Amino acid sequence: MLKKVFRVIIALLGAGIGYTLSLLLARIGFINELVVVTGYAWYSIVALFVLTAGFVGFILAPRLTDVTLKVIDFLEGALQRMPLQDLIGGAAGLIIGLVIANLLGAPLVNIPWVGPYIPIIFSVLFGYLGLSLGIKKKEELRGLMSMWRAGSKQGRGDGGKCLDKVLDTNVIIDGRISDICRTGFLEGTLIVPRFVLEELQHIADSSDLLRRNKGRRGLDILNQMRKEQGIKIEIRDFDGLDNRKDVDYRLIQVCKRLDCPVVTNDFNLNKVAELVGVKVLNINELANAVKPLFLPGEEINGVDVIRDGKESGQGVAYLEDGTMIVIEGGKKYIGQRINVVVTSVLQTSAGRMIFAKPKMAFKDSSSAQPYHEVNVIG
């Protein structure tokens, strides 16, 4: 039914084109040169043009309808696949381009011969340029809008803090970012650039079993975070980046473009980002900051000595948060759970390290008595 309606509409449009064409030919004197138009002859010529053009439109209507529907389906599919930011950026650029074309073309309309066509040419040219630049510069436009909103909030005393954060590959694979977000310590939108997602997929397809498991765990963590309420994650494309550069370089460029921090646990990325002025949220530093603080002389109960240390007679144990405890004279207690007393704490770039002695050994050494008793648990 719809195709029949379109067929009738196209036939009527063809008839209208035929009528307009007959008037145009009569105006330039083409018809009068072929035949002297008098009386009913003029109406016959007009009717001939109208019927011929209408018949041609009626015959071509099915083909034109199919082509039109295919074009509409293609455009609809392309628009559905296009991210919302691209649509908004392209629409804004198109509007700006058409406004500029109108401002430049309006004074030139009165130029003889070519004047009426200049606004059309300018509209096509500047409209295309505006659409293209709007899509490519969508992130800059978004940044300007964010700055404007931040400025308005700051004027009201709400502060102008950027809440967006960019995730790198290592912090996604690490997995602790999910727990941190669940506790509510990270606000705003977590941005995952498309090239980071592609790197995760490449790692997940690796022939190496360990790398493949890491990549799949990272993808699973992303899916889990997206499903959890209160954690907003956006997968974004960033145009204009040099794909020949490594992922860390492109991450820094994205953070500078968006003026937002990067969340990572990569030591090298941390140092490079700080050098170029990009704020870094390092979850290793956060983990070290929330670890319990032990002072010399404080007792730690129930640590399992699992192996010997680098120095002679040392034993090594670990707390639940992964903090390593080096126990002087603890080698002989490997496989046992003992109480220890902290002697010193060393803070390194890799984390915190605690040096301790077995509890009874610490008491005996302080009283200058030989120690042979150790408070062994279990």
Could you describe the 3D structure shown?
With 378 residues, this protein is an alpha/beta fold. The chain folds into three domains: 2-135, no CATH class; 165-288, 3-Layer(aba) Sandwich (Rossmann fold), CATH 3.40.50.1010; 293-377, OB fold (Dihydrolipoamide Acetyltransferase, E2P), CATH 2.40.50.140. Helices cover 56% and strands 16% of the residues. It is built from 14 helices and eleven strands. The protein has helices at 2-27, 30-34, 40-81, 84-105, 118-136, 138-155, 169-174, 176-183, 194-204, 209-227, 247-258, 267-275, 283-290, 359-366, and strands at residues 165-167, 189-193, 232-236, 262-264, 280-282, 299-308, 315-318, 324-327, 337-348, 351-358, 376-377. The strands form two sheets. The chain has a five-stranded parallel β-sheet, sandwiched between helices. Strands 6-7-8-10-9 form a five-stranded mixed beta barrel. The radius of gyration is 37 Å and the shape is elongated. 22% of the residues are buried.
Give the N-to-C terminal Cα separation: 86 Å
* Proportion of helical residues: 55-70%
Shape: elongated
Order the strands across the largest sheet as they lie in space.
3-2-1-4-5
Number of strands: 11
Question: Rg, please?
Answer: 37 Å
How would you characterize the largest beta sheet?
5 strands, parallel
The share of residues in extended strands comes to 15-25%
Average pLDDT taken over every residue? 79
Order of helices and strands: HHHHHHEHHEHHEHEHEHEEEEEHE
Report the structural category.
alpha/beta
Low-confidence stretches: 33-37, 152-160, 368-378
